[in-house]
Amino acid sequence: MDEKRLLAGLVEPAGERRSGPSSTFRRRLRLRVGYIAALCIIGLTVCAFLQPKPLMEVSNWSPMATKEEVAMSKTPIIALEPAKGAARPVHASRRLVPLEAHIMSKCPDAVDCLRDLVLPTMQQVYDKVNFTLSFIGRPTGDGGVECMHGPAECMGNILELCAHKLNPDPKIYLGFTMCISRDYEHIPDRELIEGCALEHAVDFEALNECATRDDGQYAMNLLRDSVQHTKAVGVTKSCTVRVDNEVYCIRDNGEWTNCPAGPGVHDLIIKIEKLSRQN
Ligand SMILES: *[C@@H]1O[C@H](CO)[C@@H](O)[C@H](O)[C@H]1NC(C)=O
């Protein structure tokens, strides 16, 4: 009987037979529907609260993230202030002091030199210097370059030069260079290069394009020019730091040499500030 009543209640047209057992059933049905609807709303609300967090975390790691998002989600190795595009104080009587580091991409002395002297100095006085990263190698008769640690080092040098070409801001290309230098034994493994490019907002595809343009001739010319410049100024050791076109300090075989003023960051900063005030 109950079953019959149930069926009758379901097929009964609306508005008929307001009283009786089937209307009790309808009330029950409405209650149940209401209960289910309430559960759904609570469920959706809980989901809405929980969803955005993981979604936001994912977007920070996404390769589609903008440069700004990537920059904000990472602690940069060097934080140079003010940001690109911000107004710079104008010092009409000041000049940019030439600061140059001559390196080889697979040389442990270059890692120490960038990490302990060049980067901390740049953090403080980047707006007072004209910074150049130059490379050490041997130009060959056929228009190529020979690198002390082999062709892999030449490729590392080329990637660092291309990163500079693509990103004139030293914060970016020095950050990228420092990043791959920390793991210099793996230069130029794709995984390392791609990881450091992502971390420092260097366009990996553009980097690849630069390194392979005109069958690599474009990048080889960049390296050859850099190596020839190093040779012309008489530098042979990685890493040699020059200030105002004079040797300031050399890092060689794990030791600081030729550093009359010492290898201290503070002393180098003082020297650069002094030179920038002279015309
Ligand atoms: C920085 O130095 C290079 C040569 O090393 C020069 O070509 C360039 O014009 C200089 N830039 C500024 C802004 O002084």
List keywords for this structure.
about 280 residues; alpha+beta; Glutaredoxin; five-stranded mixed β-sheet; 11 helices; 7 strands; disordered N terminus; binds 2-acetamido-2-deoxy-beta-D-glucopyranose; secreted; transmembrane helix; Interferon-induced_GILT
If you had to describe this structure to a student in words, what would you say it looks like?
With 279 residues, the chain is an alpha+beta fold. It contains eleven helices and seven strands. It has a domain at 97-276: Glutaredoxin (3-Layer(aba) Sandwich). The strands form two sheets. Strands 2-1-5-6-7 form a five-stranded mixed β-sheet, sandwiched between helices. Strands 3-4 form a two-stranded antiparallel ribbon. Helix 6 packs across helix 9. It starts with a helix and ends with a helix. The structure holds 2-acetamido-2-deoxy-beta-D-glucopyranose (NAG). 2-acetamido-2-deoxy-beta-D-glucopyranose (NAG) binds next to strand 2.
Would you spell out the secondary-structure blueprint of this structure?
Layout lengths: L1 H10 L9 H30 L1 H10 L5 H7 L23 E7 L4 H18 L3 E7 L2 E2 L5 E2 L4 H16 L3 H12 L8 H10 L4 H9 L4 H16 L7 E4 L2 E7 L2 E3 L7 H13 L2
Parallel strand pairs: 1-2
Antiparallel strand pairs: 1-5, 3-4, 5-6, 6-7
Helix pairs in contact: 1-2, 5-11, 6-7, 6-9, 6-10, 7-8
The structure holds 2-acetamido-2-deoxy-beta-D-glucopyranose.
Task: Describe, in short, the structure shown.
This protein has 279 residues and is an alpha+beta fold.
CATH class of the domain at 97-276: Alpha Beta
Radius of gyration: 32 Å
The CATH architecture name of the domain at 97-276 reads 3-Layer(aba) Sandwich
The residue-averaged pLDDT reads: 79
Q: Helices and strands: which structural class?
A: alpha+beta
The shape is globular
Give the neighbour order of strands across the main sheet: 2-1-5-6-7
The number of helical elements comes to 11
Q: Describe the biggest sheet?
A: 5 strands, mixed
* CATH topology heading of the domain at 97-276: Glutaredoxin
First and last CA, distance? 107 Å
Bound molecules: 2-acetamido-2-deoxy-beta-D-glucopyranose
Extended strand count: 7
- Helix proportion of residues, in percent? 40-55%
Protein name: Gamma interferon inducible lysosomal thiol reductase
Keywords: Glycoprotein, Membrane, Secreted, Signal, Transmembrane, Transmembrane helix
InterPro entries: Interferon-induced_GILT (IPR004911)
Main location: secreted
